[in-house]
UniProtKB/TrEMBL annotation:
Keyword tags: Hydrolase, Metal-binding, Protease, Signal, Zinc
Signal sequence extent: 1-27
Keyword Signal: yes
InterPro entries: M28_fam (IPR045175), M28_SGAP-like (IPR041756), Peptidase_M28 (IPR007484)
Protein name, UniProt field: M28 family metallopeptidase
Metal-binding listed as a keyword: yes
All residue ranges annotated as the Peptidase M28 domain in the record: 105-310
Similarity field: Belongs to the peptidase M28 family. M28A subfamily.
Pfam families to which the protein is assigned, alphabetical: Peptidase_M28
Length: 316
């Protein structure tokens, strides 16, 4: 979430007034701020939700799900790939077999940057067979897609190389991400300077959890949320439970965001975040009701902007 236009205008006016009152140039706040090559753009919530609507339509047209090995998964991947190809990405579809069915990872490289310093952002694209998987994990997949599209719109040219990924068969046990890591060429693992994971970032009764694996990545996310006045907690139930795990096992610095699954929100958490104590963060977790109605817009918006902030911060 970014300052509204009016808030930014007020800030600018305040600066101008200060300059008038002091009769000269007020110390330019920017001069004392760390030099920043570029600031991350706002990620439009409406654009992220438009992707969710597409994924919902795909699930509805394909038996109600987007699960591994089913038509709905491949249609989801084709949708995302088409948007990335049109935006100038170099895309690769990695095929694998799991539980007797064909699965696919989608990898998108933004041309340029130092190939020896790769910043990755990823999310699993598959749902469970029992539902459309809009929060789990259309939310992460759509936010990663819209951030990649924002990089293209900005024609962002960071020092490091940017790579985005959508994993298959996470629900079968991190199969797609593990397949990718296991097939990285020798030396390529150490070229990945960060892997950022986004799995369930729009839960209807949200918490704001930050992975505590790599301190620098954790700080980056916490700095963002501190900047918008939102308290966070460390993600404690996630070890090994999503696609960051294979990267962490390979020695890659990892981090990520999470808004909660079937665990109930405590009274203390409801006091700081709002929502309903005693109710699951996502009571439609792995259920047929995980539809576009199963999203908290504020959480999705905040996490999408935090995603972009971290991508810009860690790649510049
Ligand atoms: N494994 C994820 C959901 C999940 C459960 N706990 C965490 C912690 C951190 C990230 C994700 C999760 C899934 O069902 O896809
Ligand atoms: Zn799941
Ligand atoms: Zn998930």
């Amino acid at each position: 979430m970014k300052l509204s236009v009016s808030a930014r205008a007020a800030a600018a006016a305040g600066m101008a007034t200060a300059m008038l009152l002091t009769g000269g140039a007020v110390a330019d706040a920017a001069s004392s701020a760390p030099s920043r090559a570029a600031a991350a753009p706002d990620i439009p919530l409406a654009s992220v939700k438009a992707h969710l609507s597409q994924l919902q339509s795909i699930a509805t047209a394909n038996g109600g799900n987007r699960a591994h090995g089913r038509a709905g998964y491949k249609a989801s991947l084709d949708y995302i790939k088409a948007r990335l190809d049109a935006a100038g990405y170099t895309t690769t579809v990695q095929q694998f077999t799991a539980s007797g069915r064909t699965g696919y990872n989608l990898i998108a490289d933004w041309p340029g940057g130092d190939a020896n310093q790769v910043v990755m952002a990823g999310s699993h694209l598959d749902s469970v067979a029992s539902g459309p998987g809009i929060n789990d994990n259309g939310s992460g997949s759509s936010a990663v897609l819209e951030t990649a599209l924002a990089v293209s719109r900005a024609q962002y040219r960071p020092t490091k190389h940017l790579r985005f990924a959508w994993w298959g068969a996470e629900e079968l046990g991190l199969v797609g991400s593990r397949y990718y890591v296991n097939r990285l060429a020798t030396g390529d693992r150490s070229r990945i300077s960060a892997y950022l994971n986004f799995d369930m970032i729009g839960s209807p009764n949200p918490g704001y959890f930050v992975y505590d694996d790599d301190p620098a990545i954790e700080k980056t996310f916490k700095d963002y949320f501190t900047g918008i006045g939102v308290p966070t907690e460390i993600e404690t139930e996630g070890d090994g439970r999503s696609d960051h795990a294979p990267f962490k096992s390979a020695g890659v610095p990892v981090g990520g965001l999470f808004t909660g699954a079937s665990r109930a929100k405590t009274a203390a958490q409801a006091a700081k975040w709002g929502g309903t104590a005693g109710q699951a963060f996502d009571r439609c977790y792995h259920s047929s009701c995980d539809t576009t109605a199963n999203i908290n817009d504020t959480a999705l918006n905040r996490n999408s902007d935090a995603l972009a902030y971290a991508v810009w911060e860690l790649s510049e």
